[in-house]
Amino acid sequence: xQLQASGGGSVQAGGSLRLSCAVSRRTxxxxxxxxxxxxxxxxxxxxxFFRSGGNTYYADSVKGRFTISRDNAKNTVDLxxxxxxxEDTAVYYCAADxxxxxxxxxxxxxxxxxxxxxxxxxxx
Length: 124
Prior knowledge:
Blueprint: E1 3-6, E2 9-12, E3 17-23, E4 31-37, E5 44-50, E6 55-58, E7 66-71, E8 76-81, E9 90-97, E10 113-114, E11 118-123
Parallel strand pairs: 2-11
Antiparallel strand pairs: 1-3, 3-8, 4-5, 4-9, 5-6, 7-8, 9-10, 9-11
């Protein structure tokens, strides 16, 4: 499975960006997620779709500001990021897995397939 993330860039605090991840396999059959990694920090969970059911999960730090969506016809998973803060600055990665269990939806180790990251920089 190949994943290709795009849409990163630089924005001022309070602005918005939309990231997109193109997946080489049917997104309707997979769990898909976004993670991020800030300089000097561990990779952290941002948002996810669990399997085909459409249930979504968010990190508390982004809830209400970020929205994950997917287009199963195009096999893409997007992350709409609003009200961006400087602490959102990170490299953002999309991830996917075909056999993820719910208890691991927020764990990076639970995902077998990863795309290259895209950098998001939020200035104050």
